[in-house]
Amino acid sequence: MMIRVPAIVFIMPAAIFDIDGTLVDTYDAHHASWIEVSAHIGHDLQEDQFARQFGRMNDPIIRELFEFAGRSSPGSDEIRSLADRKEADFRSIIEDAFPEMPGATELVAALHEAGWRLAAGTSAPAENADMFRSKLGCGPLFETIVTGDDVQHGKPDPEVFLMAAERLGVEPVECIVIEDAPAGVEAAQRAGMASVGFCSKGRTRDELSAADLVIDSLDELDPDVMRSLLGG
């Protein structure tokens, strides 16, 4: 009598990276470009206001800046114009001196070598993501990048991470999100994914305490550390 032995299925875990403030040190460049837009709107942007907004999609940030300036809510055309202006300014700041986050390429390369599936999920528009992918040393290793242009709802809504998992063909429980923003950590939780909170510039460990692991440097991560967060 032949005994059938169930096949053992090896699940390749997936890492979904945020980009701004995680793979690329964009805090200062975004701060500078938002100061310019805020001045145009009529508001003197304070750094604590910027830090709280950092990592969100442009539309709600611009609406909030109009509120700060005591102005009526802008229409969609004005929001689009201001967002395009801000992002063009941002890209011009970082294009010549691209601020790749220390340890980013090494970590992504190690995960790729260990067989991890790789994606990025960002609030940034597609044009920014294309630049990041071309300039990051690890850019070609990402199978897919979900941008703010791909989703209807920004973080902390989980849509961006769920779409990344769907594109990779993996279940949320097989994914770990690496994020620097509290809204991103919340989005990972709402997606049913494990998360790493990266305390990069402008963040505090307390803000990221809801993550499964909080780090101060990407050098603290490797495939074994990350797999342990999945219970394996």
Describe this structure in words.
The structure is a single chain. Helices cover 43% and strands 11% of the residues. It has 232 residues and is an alpha/beta fold. The chain folds into 2 domains: 14-26 and 99-229, HAD superfamily/HAD-like (Rossmann fold), CATH 3.40.50; 27-94, Orthogonal Bundle (DNA polymerase, domain 1). Strands 3-2-1-4-5-6 form a 6-stranded parallel β-sheet, with helices on both faces. α6 (126-135) links the parallel β2 and β3. It is globular and about 75 Å long. The two termini are 35 Å apart. The mean pLDDT is 93.
Q: Can you tag this structure with a few keywords?
A:
9 helices; Rossmann fold; 232 residues; 6-stranded parallel β-sheet; 2 domains; alpha/beta
- Sum up the overall morphology in one term: globular
Average residue-wise pLDDT: 93
Strand content: 5-15%
What is the number of domains? 2
What topology emerges from the helices and strands here?
Blueprint lengths: L13 E4 L9 H15 L5 H7 L4 H11 L7 H19 L9 H10 L3 E5 L4 H10 L8 E3 L12 H10 L6 E5 L2 H10 L2 E5 L14 E3 L7 H7 L3
Parallel strand pairs: 1-2, 1-4, 2-3, 4-5, 5-6
Helix pairs in contact: 1-4, 3-4
